[in-house]
Each structure stands twice: as C-alpha cells, then as structure tokens.
Amino acid sequence: MVRKLGEKIMNDIREKHTFVICAYKESRYLEECIISLKKQTVKSNILMITSTPNTFISDMSQKYKIPLIVNEGEGGIVQDWNFGYSQCKTPYVTIAHQDDVYFKDYARRAVSFLEKAKKPLIYFSDYCEIREGKKIVDNQLLKMKRLLLSPLKIKVFQNSRFVRRRSLALGDGICCPAVTFATQNLPKQVFTVHFRSDEDWEAWERLSKMKGTFAYDSTMQMGHRIHEESETSIIIGDNARSQEDYEMYCKFWPKWIAKLLVNVYSKSQDSNKTR
Prior knowledge:
Elements: H1 2-16, E1 17-23, H2 30-38, E2 45-50, H3 55-63, E3 68-70, H4 77-86, E4 92-97, E5 101-102, H5 106-116, E6 120-131, E7 134-136, H6 140-149, H7 161-168, E8 179-182, H8 199-207, E9 213-225, H9 231-237, H10 241-249, H11 255-268
Parallel strand pairs: 1-2, 1-4, 2-3, 6-9
Antiparallel strand pairs: 4-8, 5-9, 6-7, 6-8
Helix pairs in contact: 10-11
C-alpha cells in the first residue's frame, strides 16, 4: 500500500513538473547539472534542448536517457529558453541552466509552493554561488538581492503588484535558473528577444503587472555557477550591461534617478566577475 502511494505521488509530480535543460556547445558542467536533476527527492520529467547539436550533447542525452530536442529555428539564449519552455507539456516548468546545480528538494518545494498559491505565476528560491567548485553563500551581491526580495517573504505581499514592482524597481533580485513557471497562467512566450543580459529582469517586470502570485522561497535550493565562460561574466566584462540596466530602471523611475541607480547597481555586479 505504501509503495503504491509512493508511486502515485511520484507519477503526479511527473505529470506536473518538467526540468528543461538548455544545452549549449560543450559545457564541462552539463553532466553535474544533469546529475543534480536526477537526484531530486521527487522525480520530475527532464528534457534537453539545444540549438548547437553536437556529439557531446547527444552522448549526455543518451547516457542519462534524457530526450533531446534540437531547436532548428533562430538560436540564442532567449530563443533557446522560449523554445525549451514551449516543448514542455506540464503546468510547471523549470528552465535549467547547464552550468548550474539544483539541490535535492528543489522540485518538491517548487511544486508545493505553486500548488498552495491560488493563481501562481512563478516560484523562485534563494541561491548560492558556485566558484571553483565551492559554494559561496554570502557576498555583497547575494546580500543585496536578498534585501531586495525581503518584502516578498510576507505571503500577502507575493500577490501585490505594487510590492513586487517596488522590489524589482531597485534591481533584479530573482535568479533566473531558480525560477519555475506556472505555464497555464503565463504567456506562451515568457521572454522577449531584446536584451543580452537583462532578459530575465525584463520578463519579471512584465509578469509583475499580472494578477497572481510570485511564490518566493527564501531557503537556498540551487547553486548558480560563476565562471569565465558564462555569458553573464562575458557581458559584465565588456560593460554591455549598463545600458540595459538603464533601460530597465526607466520602466520604474524618471531618467535622472535611473542614471543614479545604474551606477550603484553596476558596482554590485562586481561580485559576478571571476577575477
């Protein structure tokens, strides 16, 4: 009887949640990401998509028996995220970034939080950084992001469009790979092809206007890897982010305030540099 109940619960989760891995070129961290998804306490569907098909990605797909779908349309970070999102049939979807790892209770907590919300939009958890194989749980950037999100620890504020927008108005506290989407309450395409770096912040800004819940889990449920080859590090290194940050701040503030905030926020991003 216990076994049957356990199987039913597991099947229910697989019907509800999917991890879709966006694989790109030949990341040496891809396998670690896959293993973290396979080790979840509650098993979910796992898919892999890519716009850069190669033997390495195919071998990883076959080794771990993960369906691989090739994006034969326009490639790119946002394009791949949207493509992966569109391939999932479950009501809850996590776009897993190939360099990152998910702690064993991530899927269970994501589904639990979303199921408890009346009209969920997204779930997102706290996270740590991973640098040279070590977990960094506290630094300037992480402190700032937790401060930005602190009002959302109060459940009633998670449903407030005003509070959500005030939280986002000072910076992007939400870690993109830590997000699970409630697809039935969201647009068919969550991300817009426009930015190189702030594509996720732009998405949260749009979703914050919608009626529903931003389900914030203040416990640490995943690790975001910082390394020289990551797109975030490359963008910050060539200073392409400042203009995008300014454009985002202008969605919340007059231009003169936006300029001041860009200077403050850009300094906090030094934590994302690998050197």
